[in-house]
Design goal:
Layout: H1 2-28, E1 42-48, H2 55-63, E2 72-79, H3 85-94, E3 99-104, H4 113-124, E4 129-134, E5 137-138, H5 143-151, E6 157-160, E7 162-164, H6 171-192, E8 204-207, H7 208-213, H8 227-239, E9 241-244, E10 251-253, H9 259-270, H10 273-279, H11 281-301, H12 310-331, H13 338-361
Parallel strand pairs: 1-2, 1-4, 2-3, 6-9, 7-10
Antiparallel strand pairs: 4-8, 5-10, 6-8
Helix pairs in contact: 1-6, 1-11, 1-12, 6-12, 6-13, 9-13, 10-11, 11-13, 12-13
């Protein structure tokens, strides 16, 4: 019991310090107001697999980008789809000279599917800067200009914000929005203090020459997940990284359609902690402390000797969660029902320990 008490109080103390770290980091992030008169060439790369239902939406967004088309090269790769993905890509690319489709028919023996698809897209594209997103995302008109502005400031990689498409008023979708917001806010807060932890491949921009310099995805070619964390840490630590707080760069992604899909996605993300252990000990400390605090709260529920202190611990954690989540929501112009946040905070000790352990030992695929 003494060991559990020590773990509970210590992890809470570290958590409070991280809350202050994130909140002050968020305040340090500023939008780029720089005016650019001469825009660089840009490649947009998208990997798609069985995305026939989502492609019409992103096609519409790509066609409406306000970036000069003569400076854009958009490459959409069909990674062995079994639906109508390729025919849709082919039809769309035939209508636009700056948009190209690439069909992958077989798996690469040397690289995992997602990384091979992205590598193929990058190799087939032209442009000084590379922007990546996913086929199930919605992108705003000013996305490219907003992301490029920050690269023009001299950093090597820009991390944009992604959020869950929540136009459907579903409690499950709003829960995903809050959960995703927690990750984005923590990452943005860390970047405010120049700690470059991770990003989302749904919204990244980086310099082509730096991608070549780190040997592309070859150093992590056998990892199913983690291409985004690898890029942010490999490029960011050498050449700088920044978070883009401009609403004109915010991307929306489709929510998980089921609890099973949601859990599988979180396990895949959690598996990247193995990469963090080798590259960023401070990031690993944050991940381990979040796991430890939630695990000890869960254990405390079944330990009567801790009942006197458990309400205080959970109360302080709840306040810390609220400060981070609602500060992030204000920064990223997001809204959601407060009751969803309360539910999310209550459920954390029940699912974080499972997700953390499953990410270390679990097996999963990008897509079948």
């Amino acid at each position: 019991m003494n060991l559990l008490f020590f773990a509970l109080t210590t992890s809470l103390g570290i958590y409070i310090l991280f809350v202050l770290f994130f909140l002050t980091g968020l305040r340090r992030i500023k939008a780029n107001e720089k005016n650019i008169t001469s825009w660089p060439t840009v490649a947009i790369v998208i990997a798609a697999r069985n995305e026939e239902t989502n492609l019409p939406n992103i096609f519409q967004d790509l066609a409406q980008l306000d970036y000069p088309k003569e400076l854009l090269d958009i490459v959409i790769v069909d990674d062995r789809s079994t639906d109508n993905t390729w025919s849709l890509i082919k039809h769309f690319s035939d209508q636009h000279a700056h948009i190209h489709g690439v069909l992958i028919k077989e798996k690469s023996p040397a690289m995992t599917p997602k990384k091979y698809a992205l590598t193929t897209a990058i190799e087939q594209s032209r442009g000084e800067y590379i922007l990546s997103t996913d086929a199930d995302c919605r992108i705003p008109q000013s996305w490219v200009k907003s992301m490029v502005k920050l690269l023009e400031d001299g950093v090597g990689i820009t991390v944009g914000s992604s959020t869950i498409e929540s136009s459907k008023h579903s409690s499950f979708i709003h829960y995903q929005l809050v959960d995703f917001l927690a990750l984005v806010t923590a990452n943005a807060g860390a970047m405010g203090w120049d700690f470059y932890w991770t990003g989302s491949g749904q919204n990244l921009a980086y310099k082509r020459k730096l991608f070549a310099e780190i040997d592309g995805f070859n150093p992590v070619r056998d990892r199913i997940s983690g291409d985004d964390i690898y890029l942010v840490q490999s490029i960011g630590k050498k050449y700088g990284c920044t978070f883009n707080p401009d609403p004109g760069s915010f991307i929306k992604t489709s929510p998980s359609s089921s609890i099973r899909q949601f859990i599988s996605q979180r396990i895949r993300w959690s598996s990247n902690s193995r990469f963090a252990a080798k590259t960023d000990l401070f990031f690993l400390l944050f991940l381990f402390n979040a796991f430890l605090m939630n695990s000890t709260i869960l254990a405390g529920i079944f330990t009567p000797q801790l009942y006197s202190i458990l309400p205080m611990v959970f109360g302080l954690k709840f306040v810390g969660d609220a400060l981070v989540i609602f500060s992030g929501a204000a920064k990223l112009h997001l809204t959601f029902p407060s009751i969803i946040f309360i539910l999310w905070s209550i459920l954390q000790p029940f699912y974080i320990p499972f997700i953390g352990l499953a990410g270390l030992v679990g097996r999963f695929k990008w897509k079948p």
